[in-house]
């Protein structure tokens, strides 16, 4: 169909749709020489726990894939290149009564369209505290939890998810908001959410990779059609961050069953061409693919050493 006819009918361009991250990732790694396709977690059903009490009486926690800043681990600042040294491999927690400097340099967020200058886009603790002060939720749990972005399904399922559940139960958590950033992060939080729901804790995921989350099948998902790294709202836009959290809380209250996806009405920009860029081999030269292969191998070695340490 011609562009003029699209304009006449008010149609959006075909690429203005959720980014196909699973296929992009498969094609990308094949292009840099890793020919065994990654097996994304796939379920056709999901567990579901309704809230046991009103949200205004509930204790809510955050589960994040962001990492605490460590000045000994290289550049983790805004715009930093992928930094395997900053990855973490065990569940951690933090006191929600304190301020925290969490970064995302260790994961594959969209570095072309996001500079990672505002942690409010990936760690919505300030907004959750405001929701508590306003009486929207009963209280913020005493701790938030960090989920390692592990490519191993077994480690996530057998080690990390049970550990997060144990800490949630110890803190008497009534509901959890999970916030992923990269493609594998979305899979990790999906598996953790499923585990929490099977064990009595209602969850909602705030994310940007719709295909990965729905492929894994989760109870509740707030989809923001933003570049990876902005699951909790737009950077330096407190209004969008507050609106995103409110949508997630509303989904916790109103979902009538599992695999409920709500799409945020917010748009990243009027120009949707940013969706064409992330790991799109059609837009990468052979030289750039070779450079990325070399960098990926280097980061794998760094990560292997950190994991063994």
Please give a structural write-up:
- InterPro entries: Various_sel_PB (IPR010187).
- Keywords: Oxidoreductase.
- This protein is α/β, with parallel strands linked by helices and 309 residues long.
- The protein has two domains: 209 residues, no CATH class; 30 residues.
- Helix content is 35%, strand content 12%.
- The strands form two sheets. Strands 1, 3, 5, 6, 7, 8, 9 and 10 form an eight-stranded mixed sheet that branches. Strands 2-4 form a two-stranded antiparallel sheet.
- Helix 7 links the parallel strand 9 and strand 10.
- Helix 4 packs across helix 5.
- It is globular, with a radius of gyration of 19 Å.
Number of helices: 8
Tell me the major beta sheet.
8 strands, mixed
Shape: globular
In total, the number of strands is 10
Helix fraction bin: 25-40%
Radius of gyration: 19 Å
Order of helices and strands: HHEEEEHEEHEHEHEHEH
InterPro entries: Various_sel_PB
Organism: Bradyrhizobium niftali
GO molecular function, one term: oxidoreductase activity, acting on X-H and Y-H to form an X-Y bond, with a disulfide as acceptor
Pfam family, one: GRDB
